[in-house]
Design goal:
The chain has 2 domains: about 240 residues, P-loop containing nucleotide triphosphate hydrolases (Rossmann fold, 3-Layer(aba) Sandwich), CATH 3.40.50.300; about 90 residues, Alpha-Beta Plaits (2-Layer Sandwich). About 35% of the residues lie in helices and about 30% in strands. It has 12 helices and 14 strands. It has a 6-stranded mixed beta sheet, sandwiched between helices. β7, α6 and β8 form a beta-alpha-beta unit. α3 packs parallel to α5 and α5 packs parallel to α6. The longest helix is centred in the middle third of the chain and has 18 residues. Bound molecules: adenosine-5'-triphosphate and magnesium ion. The site of adenosine-5'-triphosphate (ATP) has 13 residues, from β2 and α1.
Length: about 350
């Protein structure tokens, strides 16, 4: 659906040049929710704005469907842009227009007949759950409601792609979740391809199918969220994941607390149905080791449940080794923690 090849964006020239994107390659499939995560200044906004040519790439190509966006003339580009919706962190609504008129705006811009505008706006209001608020002005809405207007406006022209630039960063956690649920719902109902950028792993974990980690204008790693989240290869990725759990210090302490010389501490990950099974207790009965749980979480990546335990095993070196082998044989991910 979207193919980005060797995308380079340099702002300015000469001594003042900033290389914001240094050769990005990405492939987003039709109907996918693709997340791009990175710290401030990593190049996220530049990347997403290059997808609809709000920012002109220095070199490389961006293809959406069959269309190479970098080769379009002005009028063709305007037409293609209508098929790409975009929502923003600060909503970018017209403050002097009602909710209804905000949503109608992109339709009126292309001289859509009045009846068709009305039909579409009402459909969009229904979709985002704002039917009762049609006559209000943005200042009378909560942040979450404003973003719903943003989404309705973005979808009014039936785009095939929705780009989200930190769409939930200005919202509280609960509102964030309701907006994420709405995006997921729209993705399923309309089969809409969504590309979102964020600096929050939580956003990625809740709704994305795939994730790419961007840092210094380069993609460090990418893949299905399950793989990247549970087996991060890069320090930057691990940092994003760690920041979601505030007990990192306590865990450090627990790991370094006095323990028998032969003890080994491991991270055990249960994915999918394994999450709910008593594999650990069955295994230690068999291998005759003791264990202490230093940390445990159960959560979900999109629909897939997973559990993660940091466990210290105590016993003879042979018995512990056998325990780790048995756990791995039963399809658990076992990784030694130093
Ligand atoms: N219009 C511009 N002119 C010059 N430099 C720019 C411009 N826009 C962005 N940059 C630079 O390009 C780099 C990437 O910026 P970008 O806005 O894409 O990062 P970001 O990942 O979206 O960050 P944030 O999370 O803070 O929004 C930064 O070094 C930034 O200073
Ligand atoms: Mg940005």
């Amino acid at each position: 659906m979207i193919t980005i090849k060797n995308l380079v964006k340099t702002y300015g020239t000469g001594a003042k040049a900033t290389a914001a994107l240094k050769g990005i390659n990405l492939e987003v499939a039709q109907g996918e929710i693709f997340g791009i995560i990175g710290h401030s200044g990593a190049g996220k906004s530049t990347l997403i704005r290059c997808i609809n040519m709000l920012e002109e790439p220095t070199s490389g190509s961006v293809t959406i469907g069959e269309t190479d966006m970098t080769r379009l003339g002005t009028s063709q580009l305007q037409r293609e842009r209508r098929r790409i919706g975009m929502i923003f962190q600060h909503f970018n609504l017209l403050s002097s227009a009602t909710v209804y008129d905000n949503i109608a705006f992109p339709l009126r811009l292309v001289r859509t007949p009045r009846a068709a505008v009305d039909r579409k706006v009402k459909e969009m209001l229904e979709l985002v759950g704002l039917t009762e608020h049609a006559k209000k002005f943005p200042a009378q809405l909560s942040g979450g409601q404003k973003q719903r207007v943003g989404i309705a406006r973005a979808l009014a022209t039936d785009p095939r792609v929705l780009l989200c630039d930190e769409a939930t960063s200005a919202l509280d956690p609960q509102t964030t979740d309701s907006i994420l649920r709405l995006l997921l719902d729209i993705n399923r109902k309309l089969g809409l391809t969504i590309v979102l950028i964020t600096h929050e792993m939580h956003v990625i974990q809740s709704i994305c199918d795939k994730v790419a980690v961007i840092h210094g204008g380069v993609i460090l790693e990418e893949g299905p969220v399950i793989d990247v989240f549970l087996k991060p290869r890069e320090a930057v990725t691990r940092d994003f994941i760690r920041r979601e759990s505030d007990s990192a210090d306590v865990l450090e302490e627990a790991i370094h607390a006095p323990h028998p010389e032969s003890a080994r501490t491991v991270k055990v990950t249960f994915i999918g149905d394994l999450t709910y099974q008593s594999i650990l207790s069955q295994t230690v009965k068999e291998t005759n080791v003791d264990f202490a749980i230093l940390q445990g979480t159960i959560s979900r990546i999109k629909e897939t449940p997973y559990g993660q335990l940091i466990v210290r095993f105590e016993g003879t070196p042979e018995a512990i080794e056998r325990t780790l082998q048995r756990l791995a044989e039963q399809k658990l991910e076992v990784e030694e923690v130093r």
